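Progress note, project year one: complex with zinc ion.
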Amino acid sequence: MSETYLGYSGELAKVLRELGVGVGDRVRVVKPDGSVYEGLLMPRYALSSRPIIVLKLDNGYNIGVRYEPGTRIELVEKRRVVVGGRVTVPLLEESPPPGPKPRVYIIGAGGTIASKIEYETGAVRAAMSPEEIVEAVPEIAFVADVGAGVLFNILSENMTPEHWEKIVDEVAKKIEAGYDGIVVTHGTDTMAYTAAALAFALRGLPVPVVLVGAQRSSDRPSSDAAFNLHAAVLTAARAPFAEVVVVMHGETGDTYALAHRGVKVRKMHTSRRDAFQSINALPLAKIWPSEGRIEVIDNSFRKRGEEELRVENGFERRVALVKYYPGMSSEIIDFLVDRGYRGIVLEGTGLGHVGEWLVDSIRRAVEEGVVVVMTSQCLFGRVNMNVYTTGRKLLAAGVIPGEDMLPEVAFVKLSWVLAHTSSPEEAKKLMLTNLAGEINPRHTVNLYPRWPHEG
Amino acid sequence: MPLSPKASLEGIDFRKLGLKVGLEIHQQLATRHKLFCSCPVELVEEGPEDVFPRRLRPTRSEIGEVDVAALFEWRKGRVYEYHAPRAASCLVEADEEPPHEINREALVIALAVAKALHAKPVDEVHVMRKIVIDGSNTTGFQRTAIVALGGYVTLSSGKRVGIQTICVEEDAARKIGEEGVRVKYKLDRLGIPLIEVSTAPDLETPEEAQEAAYLIGQLFRLTGRVRRGIGTIRQDLNVSIKGGAKVEIKGVQRLDLIAKVVAYEALRQYRLLQIRDELRSRGVKPEDLDNVEIVDVTDVFRGTKSRVIRRALSRGGRVLAVKLPGFHGILGVEVQPGRRFGTELADYARFWGGVGGLFHTDELPAYGITSEEVEKLYEKLGARKGWDAIVIVADEERKARKALEAVVERAKQALIGVPRETRAALEDGTTRYMRPQPGAARMYPETDIPPFEITEDVLKEAEALVPEPPEKKLEKLKSYGLSDELAQQVLRDIHLDLIEKLIEEFRGRVPATLIASTFTNILRSLRHEGVDVEAIPEHAYRELFSMIAEGRLAKDAIPDVLKFLAENPGSNVSEAIEKLGLGGVSLEEVEREVEKILDQLEGELREKGERIFGKVMGRVMAKYRGRVEGRVVAEIVKRRIRERLEKLGVGKR
Ligand SMILES: [Zn+2]
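Model obtained:
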């Protein structure tokens, strides 16, 4: 059963393989009742073991034809590959004006910003050479001289600290090569984690580093990829701040993008364009790509070109992010300690609590040298463990209150901190120090969004 | 034979022209929710909505192709402003959430239609994305899927018209306005399930096309699961004649217009071929148009009396002109009644240049442009009077230039024949250029939606909805007591399923004939008066007939009540009765009124006896029409007359 061919499985896979047909070949399927279907063979995308052949008919539609005993499949013609003759109509009629422009380097680390559809087979191919990117989003050539390259292309959910480290090195290399800003294309699911990782590892950043992605894939006309990329390149080229930021849609319409500080941003929606929001902070700027305008919102940023880059790369892998839930067993904490974990970020309830039956296990963890940091499931607001008894007990057990850090940011920060110090005391000091804007000591009333409650 | 300036259908033999027509008929389905989300299938006029602007970018194929029309819209800076009513749209329509799985109910209805059309269901339904970048889909594509292939529909002549495909697809957003580069769409209609039946190009006369459309539409209604009202059924036509081209005509909303649209399009293609032949006989060649120069003639019009030109100049615009060599007289030639070749050029100028229109020498001097100005134009362009035509456009220079480039391109096409275009149907049966036809069908799989296998279970469900054949339905209608003529009318009525439901529901309480004729006669004449009868909800009819069944409303009052309901959306029958002063007449009051009238007519009564009945009846009804049943009044009048005559001792003669 595990033998699949073009996504087909079982008997059908065997028959197709023996026939030697490939995607795009013209085949004829004759069913036992005499009905005949002819079209181009399509791969089977659906993870289904049903014996159904997918054909693209001459009218462009795909249909599924059941393969039942007595069905005959014939190869009519091998696929004709169109060779050469790339006819490219430019999207824009105007060319960028001559003269020097800021230099921006685009690092591909997943998330397809530009792609092409093979209408014949439905295959979507990511396009990532500088030429292809400029061809797809010619607006960026008006903003910057663009260099680009693919570092790797993985799904956002498959990103690991190893990938963060690779991106840190690549960004550092390009900054040292004199680029005025860096753009990193990235899948959106874990983009905020990577943004935080870059923010901690790239000390003394002299230029903006912008993470960007798309919530609608770039093969569709309504994709947000081009808008976001345009805004990202504009930010990298011209923003006054030298910070790691995430630049994505600011609202559902194609109006402005927001530049969120990489250590204060979170993906707050599964699918909306404006899924990324700053939590416990204002975004740094509004970006209006069509007008080429950057409107700074928060002035408390590190200025461009003021410092010199110091790369402190490396992330400890033995760090866990644990979400507390009612009734959680202390075995989970014990397990991590026994397995040699060096850091635990707890995502506690409210002001920073867990069931009091966990306190003993947590105390043991701290005694064994594990750094334990408390954050809140509320996301909005600050941890304060002095207000209630359990909080005070946890503090006494040695838990570090994570201020207003997002749980994920605290996790990335602790991973980074523990890779650079072996002393729990030093780690504690660093966790309580604002290294990259991850701690906001002042929450004004407006920082909490107003949720709809009128019909 | 010289080319006559007027276009007329007289003497046209469509079969000789080699007319070929294929239909694409789209019908909205009355499902519980939309095709790819849980929103209700309804249009809303009020209530809160969210508004957001978007742009759509042309996508590029593997070999670098982009759709020219899409590219063009994007370059223009086209912005789509979406209005998302919260009652009838969600994140799916806003393209902010992936589509849900395909609506099974819609597939079942489509399979029922497929069965009635003798088509063969596919084994697995695959949803495709068809690129459509006019903004009417927030995604930039329409989701569509083939449900069945093949089949036929039989015309009254016995001719079988082939069916090519039966699809289920999502309806587009509805356009609610346009301001400059901003086009406004409302998202309530987006995602409503449509069934689309495409015929083979087997139809050879306008009448055949109309009949086939009628038969397929009737089949939809016979399922009892389709939406009613303006815009719920739309026909697209593919029309060609021998030597012409397959032209797509979009959005014919009225069935009775189809024959006319087809005839006029055949005529247009025929006339374009005549124009081509005329130009060829003049020795004009496509190359003659290759290097025509677009000239700035603003100087000619300094101090012009033309308001259009003055306005353009006052806004900083220019007047540009181009010479069409050998085209004198051609621009004034009609291709359809009231549409000249010049109008076709103007459509191109509007679409490609975004200008308001153009002037050409076949219609000048006029519109405030003097013969001296025309003279100067010919001079300035080095054009020959009586041989060349000149087209001018006054607008922003860039737009005017684009417009004239499109005009030259279209003029060049005239030397080849009929261009492949997508055209929009107009109210009078003529059509206007909409956009070029997209090259290859841009379709690719909708990978967000899993394929749907058509299993035995699904087919069994569909079986229950397969519409009865029209002949059988006719028999059934007649069995309710309807005359053959009325039954035929009901069969053609868009309310067919509702009429049948009501007849069943009020069996024995309201005559079937009354229910049927309420729709076939009363609604029809109200519609003719311009009353928007589509606004009357289904439950209002139910309320109406219950009142009649209970004797609380006279049948004479039906037209007034329906008119009131149509003009006051959201109102009900009781309100109508109250506001119109209908009902509420007691029999005692009628008795008193009859007495009063008989008192007044005593002399006449003595003289004429029972023959006075009509006169009395007339006066009473004049007062109570619609409020009390005539039959009841007649009884009272007859009884009272008899009583009086007895008293007077006139007795029977
Ligand atoms: Zn919806």
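Residues 4-88 of chain A form a domain with the SH3 type barrels. fold (CATH 2.30.30.520).
The mean pLDDT of chain A is 93.
No further modelling is planned for this target in the current period.
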